[in-house]
Design a protein that fits this description.
By secondary structure, this protein is α/β, with parallel strands linked by helices. 41% of the residues lie in helices and 16% in strands. It binds 5-S-methyl-1-O-phosphono-5-thio-D-ribulose.
Length: 348
């Protein structure tokens, strides 16, 4: 990619400030864990895998800056930062998965000492980033076969390099198909209210010179009816044990439309997005964000003062509407309950 979503710089974490895109390509340097947490909360960095990487790097930064030599004091301080990271956003499970990996290292601090733990925490955060990029490439490798020459591919929100350590999940599939020389058109939902499709996905595709057409969310049905869409591929923030998938608000409607037009609907996500502790999507916590995101457009009021508004950031697509889940271990098909469990227990 021509840009880096997030980078470890020893004394700081550098991230591309996604609030400024596409008007400005500006990098944000976070010099302590609290500013990383603030960047996640305010969506300077967003997208399930990317916030997992950011949280891990924030924790590593805290470990590096903490000068204590006393194992218990060191562990307590870093655990506090882990809790702060867990509270930034509730839906994407990758965040909790990444924080959990960092917490695991703290279990050995009493035995191995502070210096070792500090190094291991930094190494783990870098490993989470590197693995995420590798995993995205594998998702692309498995998913690219779903795109045929001349297809129209519709995507929602941003599940690209900006939403991950690099390359992307749903967009990773698109990049991999392009790298094979396939020609196709991408339709990009603008993704109200935060416009991740318009501001971020469209920007990525323009950078990569992939033919793309931006549409408002309400136009997807018309395109499908006209026969212009052959495949829908989206990312995910949390996938329950039965395959029910939480993703950006609007995904569910898109899945219903796809079914009614006979268009295959695929989810692309790393296995770190699976939450097999949840039986169904009913149990997925859904973030509700400020209603000002709905009543205002980039800070400018567009709704009458005093009107009520509702702003859930995610919805849950029932597994029955999903054709397959493209992971780094292959495409998982129905029955999801059995097959998702299978890929998590079978190392191959
Ligand atoms: O609120 P966001 O922008 O963090 O929501 C992001 C999405 O819903 C993405 O589609 C999802 O995280 C998949 S990212 C590879």
């Amino acid at each position: 990619m021509k840009f880096k979503t997030i980078e470890w710089k020893d004394d700081r974490v550098r991230m591309l400030d996604q609030r400024k895109l596409p008007q400005e390509v500006r990098y944000l340097d976070c010099r302590n864990a609290s500013s990383v947490a603030q960047a996640i909360r305010t969506m300077a960095i967003r997208g399930a895998p990317a916030i997992g990487v950011a949280a891990a790097m924030g924790i590593a930064l805290a470990a590096r800056k903490n000068r204590s030599t006393h194992p218990r004091i060191f562990a307590k301080a870093v655990e506090k930062v882990c809790r702060e990271m867990r509270e930034t956003r509730p839906t994407a499970v990758n965040l909790f998965w990444a924080v959990g990996r960092m917490e695991k290292i703290l279990e050995d601090v009493e035995r191995d000492g502070v210096e070792k733990a500090r190094k291991r925490l930094v190494r783990e955060a870098l490993q989470i980033l590197e693995t995420d990029i590798e995993v995205n490439r594998k998702i692309g490798m498995y998913g690219k076969h779903l795109i045929k020459e001349g297809n129209g591919v519709l995507t929602h929100c941003n599940a690209g390099a900006l939403a991950t350590g690099g390359f992307g999940t749903a967009l990773g599939v698109i990049y991999a198909a392009r790298d094979e020389g396939k020609r196709f058109e991408v339709f990009v939902d603008e993704t109200r209210p935060m416009l991740q499709g318009c501001r971020l996905t469209a920007w990525e595709l323009v950078q990569e010179k992939i033919p793309a057409t931006l549409i408002t969310d309400s136009m997807a049905g018309v395109l499908m009816r006209k026969g212009l869409v052959h495949l829908v591929v989206v990312g995910a923030d949390r996938i329950a044990g039965n395959g029910d998938t939480a993703n950006k608000i609007g995904t569910y409607g898109l899945a219903v439309l796809s079914k009614s037009h006979g268009i295959p609907f695929y989810v692309a996500a790393p296995t770190s997005t699976l939450d097999l502790s949840l039986v169904s999507g009913e149990e997925i916590p859904i973030e509700e964000r400020s209603v000002a995101e709905v009543t205002h457009f980039r800070g400018f009021p567009v709704a009458p003062k005093g009107v009520k508004a509702f702003n859930p950031a995610f919805d849950v697509t029932p597994h029955s509407l999903i054709h397959g889940i493209i992971t780094e271990k292959g495409i998982i098909r129905k029955p999801f309950k059995r097959n998702l469990k299978g890929i998590m227990t079978n190392p191959k």
